[in-house]
Design brief:
The protein is built from 15 helices and 24 strands. The protein is an alpha/beta fold. The radius of gyration is 26 Å and the shape is globular.
């Protein structure tokens, strides 16, 4: 009895100082009554793989197809060994420490149900639920790391039993088996899983909430009395209401996040709100960052006097990231960007480095040919698993800068310390907003708003996530700036040891005659440089101009492209 009283007192004390989240009208607040804007990141690619994250989308999109491809090369036991290493390395304490230091105050965990409970067809007793310790242990560890950093963990059922939609990659939906909506057993298992999670985490203050079903995307049938399809989402609302009831059997405290159909955004036929501590989640990709694109969810917030949360967004340029966060800040909306880790990418805050050996596996899977040996494939896959360790990923500081500093600071700052005399690589232009650090004419992907505005922004898909097009070089610093257009420019912050006249030499390539202007940040002309045709886009030559006047200390130099088609590798100032 005494122990129970002490435990009760401890929990009361814990929740009194824990900053546990709850809803308050249209706001999310902590237990001190302070408004909390969730600034989060989704840990996509860890518990659930999507093909595009591993560069297998052309031949294996959902995770079960990826596992089949791996098993084909290294066998069932080898596949399991790979996933054991992959899951161990995918997210660690170091990753969460890094996210907290970068400025994030929350993470969203996309869960695959099969780490917590087997599929219905593998249950020893039909209709019963077996619980697997692996997923719960992974969640326990993650929560411990989040609590140590005082950031919130939001649990997100990303792959529900049977799969919750027609987009099979998102939920690992196996079309040969009954989906979530076709099987009452799958629905019961989903409810039971959430009940189990709530029982386990009901007293955990750093659990930020429960995101019940990620991105349902299914065509439900059914009409309301006037013949419209407003009630076509009825099965979705019923299941989420049933899940909420199961959670509330033990957990009265944590926020419930519900998602609409159509990848989280279709709230047609919404039934009367069934819980007093609930929030709407919506997702936003590849459209304009203006009030019009979020007006429907703003209206939903007002109508039901409930908070809204952008549970998933990303996969765009730094310009889009900064503009989006500015829009969300104006409307006091929290968010979780997507994802944490992908192979060979520029749009995430970390990049998992690809290897030539893994590229050979991808080529075989896609095109056939000579089958790699089991030993070769095993080593290639285990090396990729090793590359998922935080100590081995590439940190994308330009994205972090765009998500945090650039939101409220329009100034540019050096990408690297450039000291002259010395060499400056073209890809190392300043960090900052477009119009401050650089100007590019193709810098954002808006195809959902306008199909004509589908863009890769950085068409070389190398190094940085701005609009500047950066390509692989492999000769000098690995990169060069290409696909330049007249009117574009790049800025470099340079420290000069002394005030004098310097010689400016630039390594470039291009099929046509071109030219650049060198200006300071105020627009003062410093020099003009002619760039005669080199005969090809990678036929590199160097030209020089003399008497470039620079002051001692900090100089900001802008390279303005007077015509299109020049590729720049580096310049030297001596």
């Amino acid at each position: 009895m005494k122990r129970a009283i002490l435990l009760s007192a401890l929990l009361l004390s814990q929740f009194g100082t824990s900053q546990l989240l709850k809803t308050d009208g249209q706001k999310i607040i902590n237990d001190k009554g302070e408004n909390i804007q969730l600034r989060g990141l989704g840990l996509g690619g860890w518990m659930l793989q999507e093909g595009y994250m591993l560069k297998t989308a052309d031949f294996a999109g959902p995770q079960h197809k990826i596992k089949e491809k791996i098993t084909e090369l290294i066998g069932e036991d080898g596949m399991k060994d790979f996933y054991k290493a992959y899951l161990k390395n995918g997210i660690t304490r170091q990753d969460i420490d890094f996210l907290a230091k970068a400025g994030f105050n929350s993470v969203r965990l996309p869960m695959h149900y099969d780490l917590y409970t087997p599929p219905i067809e593998k249950e020893p007793v039909k209709g019963q639920n077996t619980w697997l310790e692996e997923g719960f242990k992974m969640t326990d560890d993650l929560l411990k790391w989040c609590a140590a950093n005082k950031i919130y963990l939001i649990l997100d059922l990303h792959a529900a039993p049977g799969g919750q939609g027609n987009d099979v990659n998102i939920s690992d939906n196996d079309k040969t088996k009954p989906s979530l909506w076709e099987s009452i057993e799958n629905q019961n298992k989903t409810i039971a899983l959430w009940r189990k999670l709530a029982e386990r985490y009901k007293d955990e203050p750093w659990i930020g909430g429960y995101d019940l079903i990620n991105e349902p995307n299914i065509n439900f049938t059914g009409k309301n009395p006037n013949g419209t399809d407003e009630m076509s989402n009825a099965p979705l609302w019923k299941l989420q209401k049933d899940i909420t009831a199961a959670i509330r059997e033990t957990d009265k405290k944590h926020i419930i996040f519900i998602e609409g159909n159509g990848w989280g955004n279709n709230y047609n036929g919404l039934i009367p709100i069934w819980d007093s501590n609930m929030a709407f989640s919506f997702h936003k990709y590849w459209n304009y960052n203006n009030d019009e694109t979020i007006q429907s969810i703003l209206d939903l917030r007002t109508k039901h006097n409930m908070p809204i949360w952008l549970g998933e967004t990303g996969e765009n340029s730094n310009v889009w990231f900064t503009e989006l966060i500015q829009l969300l800040d104006r409307h006091h909306i929290g968010y979780a960007f997507w994802p944490m880790k992908k192979i060979d990418n520029i749009a995430g805050i970390t990049n998992v480095k690809i290897t030539p050996e893994y590229e050979k596996l991808l080529n075989y899977w896609k095109n056939g040919g000579e089958k790699p040996s089991k030993d070769f494939a095993t080593k290639a896959l285990m090396k990729i698993a090793e590359n998922y360790k935080f100590s081995n990923v590439e940190i994308k500081n330009d994205i972090i800068d765009a998500m945090f500093r650039q939101v409220n600071d329009e100034s540019a700052k050096p990408f690297k310390k450039h000291q002259i005399p010395g060499r400056v690589f073209a890809s190392d232009y300043d960090l900052g907003r477009m119009g401050s650090a650089y100007l590019d004419k193709d810098f954002i992907n808006l195809w959902v708003s306008d199909p004509k505005k589908r863009s890769e922004w950085n068409s070389g898909q190398q190094m940085r996530n701005d609009g500047v097009d950066i390509y692989h070089d492999g000769i000098t610093n690995t990169y060069y700036v290409g696909k330049t257009e007249a009117g574009e420019w790049l800025q470099y912050t340079i420290d000069a040891k002394s005030e004098k006249k310097y010689t400016f030499s630039i390594r470039y390539a291009g099929k046509n005659d071109a030219g650049i202007r060198l200006e300071d940040a105020s627009g003062k002309l410093l020099a003009k440089v002619s760039l005669p045709s080199t005969g090809g886009d990678e036929n590199w030559k160097t030209v020089s101009v003399k008497n470039l006047s620079l002051k001692q200390g900090t100089n900001k130099i802008r390279l303005h492209f007077e015509s299109s088609g020049s590729n720049l590798n580096y310049f030297e100032i001596d």
